[in-house]
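This part of the workshop introduces the protein records we will be handling. A record pairs a protein's sequence with a compact description of its fold. As an example, a complete record with its sequence and its structure tokens follows.

_____
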Amino acid sequence: MKKKQTRLIIYTGKGGVGKTSISAATGLLASTRGKNTLVISADSANSLGDAFEEKISNKPIEIEPNLWVQECDVYLGIEKYWTKTQEWARSVLMWQGIDDIIADELLAFPGMQELTVLLEILEHHKSGKYDLIVVDCAPTGDTFKLLSLPEAGNWWMEKIFPWSKRINRIARPISKFLSEVPLPNDDVFDSAEDIFDKVSEVQKLISDHKLTSLRIVTNPEKMVIDETQRSYSLIGIFGYLCDLIICNRILPQKALEGYFSERSEQQEKNIARIKDSFDPLPIKFSDYFKSEIGKENLRELGMNIFGNEDPSKIFYKDTSFKIQRLKDPKEKFKLEINISQTAEEDFEINRTEENIIFTMSGFRKIFLLPDQLKRKEIEKAVLEDKKLTIIFGEKI
């Protein structure tokens, strides 16, 4: 019997753009169309319960037919996944004279929230219970902590962990005569190794373009679009798939009369900029709601965004761009950007301090350069088969 292939969608974006509402709406719509769906919050703010108007917990709770919701609790996650490590860390803190209650608070190290979420996602994915898992991520910066954790963990396990384990075995017998500080035993190292093996599995899952995609939620506002461009670049650098941009909270024409009339032109410009920046990615739009989002409004929001389309489908199956370091003594780089236009004789490339601006026959594409390319000179640009290739050479 063929194992169920669970689809994973990760929503990210700047704080306050409506990620939680759209994550909830996506999950609700998918569940009403027959998919067993889990919506899980990776945000310590945990607003999913407010969006669904339900009391939810650190375990999946079925709140509608085919729909489960979960909010991750970092402290319960530590108890669940880090028992051996937690016991050792607590003993060290208490050896230092720290009260046991304060010690428990200090055990929530930076990155624990992200790690707990990764391990929960993997556990649910492997269970085969769900057709779709929707992850409501924390604001952008925390999202990329989450996404970079598997790579950092793999590096630590390959480079540092074996030496730490070996040195600890040598030091443990000697330390008894020199100090009373508790050193970790082999169970602690075995527990850490098991966790990072799972983190490695998570990286494979998130990197699997047939199962996993990220979606960026944005608003038609300059600062939010700037952040969205940075997110888009980082997703490409990590090699993850971004299949959709959702522009949320668009003021409808009726709302742009009177007090908000001056925002009409600016909103139009910002929407045009979003289209220019993220072509050829599909972009979906959603109006600002009159009232706060509740369960019924979530149904309407899901329909506004996806209509009759399957919200769990992969809307774009190619990576938007690729950066490659060329084997050249002058540290050259090749940037390949997918665009929706076919090649013509005349096109123009301009650059600002941070952007590449491609123009051809009224079509415009704005691309935010990653940091490593901002200080490089453009040597050559070629457009072929809807792919713009730019070679970067000497430093500016």
